[in-house]
């Protein structure tokens, strides 16, 4: 699998897990929601293209920088995603 796109969870009351250093206010507001692990994507080491659109990702997701063949990363609408720019070095 070389290309994956992730967008809205269709059911109300669901979210993707918070990761490192989340915004505490958002984490508190969504604490009771059913949580799904988005780090499952890290199993796809051969990814060339990853698109994550309008997901309430909250925190730093270090696995996003662990795809050696990734050429395209689109994270539109991910307002609470924190970037660890040191991982780009």
Describe this structure in words.
The protein is mainly β and 89 residues long. 7% of the residues lie in helices and 24% in strands. The chain has 1 helix and 7 strands. The protein has one helix at residues 24-29; strands spanning 3-6, 14-16, 34-36, 49-52, 59-60, 72-74, 81-82. A 3-stranded parallel sheet has the order 1-4-6, with no helix packed on it. Strands 2-3 form a two-stranded parallel ribbon. A two-stranded parallel sheet has the order 5-7. The longest helix is centred in the N-terminal third of the chain and has 6 residues, at 24-29. The model has no long low-confidence stretch (mean pLDDT 86).
Features:
1 helix, 89 residues, 7% helix, three-stranded parallel β-sheet, 24% strand
Provide a brief overview of the structure.
It is built from 1 helix and 7 strands; from the N terminus they run ββαβββββ.
Please describe the topology of this protein.
Layout: E1 3-6, E2 14-16, H1 24-29, E3 34-36, E4 49-52, E5 59-60, E6 72-74, E7 81-82
Parallel strand pairs: 1-4, 2-3, 4-6, 5-7
| Low-confidence runs | none
Spatial ordering of strands, largest sheet: 1-4-6
What is Rg?
13 Å
Order of helices and strands: EEHEEEEE
C-alpha geometry: globular
